[in-house]
Every structure is written in structure tokens, then in C-alpha cells.
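Holo prediction — cobalamin.
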Amino acid sequence: MNHRLLTSTEAAEWLKASPTSVKRWADAGLIECVRTVGNHRRFTLESLERFAQTHGATSTDASVGEWLTVLLERNVDAVHGQLLLERSTAPSWAEVCDRLAPVLAEVGEAWAAGRIRVVDEHLASERLARGLARVVDALPVAPRAPVAMLMTVEGDEHTLGLALAEVVLREAGWQTLWSGRATPLDELAATLASRRVDALAVSASSFSCDEAALEPQLRALEAACETAGCALVLGGNGAWPDRATTGRRVTTFRQLGRVVQEILDER
Ligand code: B12
């Protein structure tokens, strides 16, 4: 095992991609990376090999472009069709969901660069949300299946990460309860105490970039889950406090698939 850590430039050379793409794939959780004290990204050769195996660096760029066309210019049927097409070339829905990370990042960059309007972003997001909902509805679960509740952190309207997580949970045989955006934290403990919830999955998108604002929310989430005896899963590229927590930090959907299995194995 080669332990030497590679810089983003060296990783880009190895992947025959641009350092910007490597950084974007890392931030989207597609390539595992570690951070130096100076917050620089560093990569192991193994993580690059894993990425190249599943993505093959250049093809990802091409497919991001295709996805943008479908999301921004076509309808929900076309989005649903594209999702099924991706699934036909992937080992799992978790893999498909990970392939969508750079697509969402690209939508954000197109908005930030003024190439698309906020309304375009709303329309594209809703098409994807509805396409994913059709996939979820087609994935039946057993009556006494484990239950996961899905919510975003307070103030965060970004629910696509949750919609992707819901597909992965259904594929893993979990029932899902969509609480989504604006879930009041002060009601959470009572909700978790009033019904069987085996895991609470919480999303903080990169919009939730203030760690100090997330700290009290994380404490409330930890306390509610501890009292109810349910697992806590933390997702999204938001500024989750970098400290020991009873929550399980998840950055990719393949990882989510593994984590929810661990939760069941531990029961
Ligand atoms: C779609 C979108 C919207 C849509 C959301 C629609 C919807 N139903 O979700 C709309 C148009 C409503 C919107 C609104 C806004 N947005 Co917006 N948005 C986006 C965009 C393009 C995608 C968001 C998204 O879903 N990403 C997927 C997220 C959730 O994934 P992630 O954090 O990268 O996490 C990854 C993993 O961790 C995993 N994951 C995510 N969640 C979870 C949860 C679990 C349990 C698990 C296991 C895994 C997991 O999935 C992701 C992919 O791998 C992003 C671009 C981006 N880079 O994210 C901008 C972005 C987040 N938005 C941004 C902004 C500024 C806004 C607005 C303020 C714009 C405005 N002026 O109106 C508002 C704020 C609304 C609010 N209060 O939240 C900025 C945030 C910048 C910043 N640091 O503050 C971004 C980064 C765009 C940009 N490039 O600047 N947005």
C-alpha cells in the first residue's frame, strides 16, 4: 500500500483531468481525500484508482453535460428515463446517486456564474426531485422494515441530497419518512419518542457553511437520537462541526449504503 499523499495537481496529472475538476470531485465526495492542517486536499493512490475505476475521469465530464441538458431543458419523464439509463450501467442506485454529485455542483456553478437563473435552478431541482420520487415509489419495502427519517438542518432549503439518500435507503430495504426542510428541532425528541425510527438522516448543504450555527443543532440532534435510541447520520458538504460525535458522518451514497447496513448489524 503506497502511503504517499498526492496533491490536487499530482492527482490531476494521474487522472488526466484538471486540478479544478479533481477539487470539485473531492468536494462532492466522489474522491476520498484528507485535509492538511492548512486545509489542502491530499489523495492516496488507492482513492484515485477507486475513482478512476468507477468514473473513468474524462467520461464524468461528458455525462455532466448530458445531465445538465436533461435537467435544464427536458421534462420529468426525460429525467426519470436518464436515471434508469444510469442505473442500467451501474452496480447500484447508490452509485448512480454519487454520479449526480458533480452534476449538482455544476448546476450551482452555472447559477453562481450567471449562466442560469434561480428559476432555472428551481425547475431543474424539481424535475430531479420528481424523477427520484418515481424511483423511490418503484422500490417496495417490507412492512416491518427499518425506518429512517429524513430532514435538513434549520434554514437549509436544499433537499436534493435527502432525495438521493432516500433512493439509497429504499434500495437497502428501509422505510423512509420525509420530514424534509424546516423540521423544528424542538419537536424532534417528541417525534422520535412517539414512533419507531431506527435512523435519523440529516442533510446540511454547502449553503450551511457556518460551523458555529450548526454546533447547537448537532447537539440537539445527538441528544434527541440518544434519548430515542436511534442512529444519527450526517450528510451534505455543510460545515458539520469537526469534533467527536455520536453521529455518523457520510460523504458519499455508497458509504451511506454501508453505514445503514452497519446500523442494522449492530441491532
Ligand atoms: C439546487 C440548489 C438550490 C435549489 C434547492 C432546491 C431543492 N429542492 O433542494 C434552490 C433554488 C431552492 C436553492 C436556493 C438557494 N441556494 Co442553492 N444550490 C443548489 C445546488 C445547485 C445543488 C444543491 C444540492 O442539492 N446539492 C447536493 C447537496 C445536498 O449535496 P452536498 O452538500 O454537495 O452533499 C453531497 C453529499 O454529502 C451527499 N449528501 C448530501 N446530503 C446528504 C444527506 C445524507 C443523509 C447523506 C447520506 C448524503 C448527503 O450528497 C451530495 C452529493 O454527493 C447547490 C450547488 C452545490 N454545490 O451543492 C447550490 C448552492 C448550495 N446554493 C447556494 C445558494 C447561495 C442558494 C440561495 C441563497 C440562492 C438565493 N439567493 O436564493 C438559496 C438559499 C436557500 C436556503 N435557505 O437554503 C450556494 C451556497 C453557497 C454558500 N456557501 O452559501 C450553492 C453552493 C451554489 C453556489 N455555487 O454558490 N439552491
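READOUT: The mean pLDDT is 89.
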